[in-house]
Amino acid sequence: MAEQQLKPALGPLEQLLANIRGGGLSGLLETVNPELRNRPDYQNIKKGAKFAYETVTDPLNLISSTPQGFAAASIFKSIPAFLIKPYMKAVEEAEQLKRTIVRERNNISKDGRAAEVAEEKAKQQLVKVNARIKSLQKDIKKETGLEVPQAPVLSTNQGILDLINDPKNIFHGSQTKGIGSFELPKGSGSEGGLYLVDKFIDPRLKQFAMGRPSQGAPGSAYITEPDFKNMLTVGDTSKQMDRLLKNLEINLSQKNLIEPAFQVKELRKNIVGVPNSFTKAASEGLRNIGIDAIRIPNKRRGVDNSDTFISLNPSENLNILDEIPYEDIEGLIKELMKR
Prior knowledge:
CATH class of the largest domain: Alpha Beta
Radius of gyration: 22 Å
Shape: globular
Order of helices and strands: HHHHHHHEEHEEHHHEEHEH
């Protein structure tokens, strides 16, 4: 038997972020102090006061003097009230909307069109709320230099399975936990695009969530709802698009950008393989001609193989619906395979 290796203890802040898996604002507070669930004042606030943003009972005062509690308090109390209060309120609103979406989706079989309309309305509201959250995150970072966590809110297996089974959703694996909104990778790797797959059981998803052991602990799989405005599907381009791609390829070649030119050339073919990374120059060129995503259809056999998507503008066209820790991925795959 291999010798068991002990992992070093996480610091208070890292432990706080790693423990947040669901529940919005209430989940965050219960994570840093589980004893809150038994406190009448906390339950009263949850039920009637909507966390009393404008009253003397500040939710942060309910965080106990644990290391995680001090970490949470130091994060939020160092942020001006005019920024953190709208942020916390928006996260709570997003939580409620996501629950509404799952509930109405489950009610379609019995309520029909009414449930479909209610689900669509909640999704449109959620897009607006998430945009507000992203904007507040940027404002907070600009004002304080801090990145606030956005806790996933659909914590039940059934809710997660509903999201996974929704054909509109696609998935991204990352060694980074607690991502609130996607950005293009910086410094190394695929600086031009964020990779996703459209089947949760695709082994690549778990592989990317595990990451490299030399770079730390495994991360998470993210369920996302894409909002691609102009997606290029490899092997299915119009003559006009092919001409645009050809011109871009020539332009990149003339600038001696060999790898980006080759990547654009490959997009004009009915390729089988998937590039290991996507260059920044190729991505910028494609965005300049109006393309914000690439779809590479799966050409291999096997139930677990799926199409590959590359988002060229993930901060704008990918909405994170939920986060699944690496250790929960295998159990969900087994559950999906039973169905």
